[in-house]
Design brief:
alpha+beta, outer membrane lipoprotein receptor (LolB), chain A, 10-stranded antiparallel β-sheet, 10 strands, globular
């Protein structure tokens, strides 16, 4: 009886130690979250231009620019600057008026569905970029974070970051406290139908603040690409 009780206490102690270890993030994770918070605070002083280009089968389907800045609520506010959206090609005539109208309706429906899908693809980028410290904390708490130390750069692999089965890999330089690489493997609706590969290139402003200079997202199964470029950063009042 005493032996069983001692075993139970030992098991409970091991469980508590395991829980404490799970709640204590690796130093690289703590440094990353601290860096993200500091960098995000610095970015809120800036305004910039976001250029989005959506292509399908190598043909540009939509191009848009937006003036961006952080609002009082801490969220990015975007004002469209200009938009270029190629018009859908009209179907060739034939088959009479009724047949022509039916074909036009079918084409219009398909074009609308494709446009909606491309918008969903573009929106997915902003769910991954920039990284969210709270999501990183949730992944770490769920035990889905793996740390791969390297020479100068540590890779943090975050599984199920946004969606079940996705993977976010962040290359972080602890000495410089800066991200060096940022790659995502995800999907839009179904993993087997529209897998997504996303890569971000970062750059630095004169004061050392880093920002996502270019984001490339590729849905190979649909032959859709989204390129988002951020440029023209200016501090408020300058």
């Amino acid at each position: 009886m005493i032996f069983k009780h001692a075993c139970s206490l030992a098991a409970a102690a091991v469980a508590l130690v395991s829980m404490a270890a799970a709640q204590t993030p690796p130093p690289q994770v703590a440094a990353l979250k601290e860096s993200l918070a500091k960098n995000q605070a610095a970015l809120k002083q800036y305004s910039w231009v976001e250029t989005t280009v959506i292509s399908m089968k190598g043909e540009v389907k939509k191009q848009q620019q937006k003036q961006c800045s952080y609002g009082p609520d801490g969220k990015v506010q975007k004002t469209p600057i200009g938009e270029q959206e190629p018009k859908a090609k009209e179907p060739s005539g034939g088959g009479g008026r009724r047949g022509g109208r039916a074909k036009q309706a079918i084409v219009a429906k398909k074009v609308g569905e494709v446009k909606d899908y491309m918008e969903d693809v573009a929106a997915l980028v902003h769910q991954y970029v920039p990284p969210d410290a709270q999501k990183i904390q949730a992944v770490q708490g769920a035990g889905n974070l793996a740390v791969q130390p390297g020479a100068g750069v540590t890779v943090l692999n975050l599984k199920d970051y946004l969606k079940p089965g996705d993977l976010l890999a962040i290359g972080f330089d602890p000495a410089a406290k800066a991200m060096r690489s940022y790659n995502v493997t995800s999907y839009v609706e179904k993993p087997q139908d529209d897998a997504v590969a996303l890569a971000v290139t970062f750059a630095s402003l004169p004061d050392g603040t880093t920002y996502p200079q270019q984001t490339l997202l590729d849905v190979k199964a649909k032959d859709i690409q989204v390129k988002i470029t951020n440029s023209g950063y200016k501090k408020a009042g300058t």
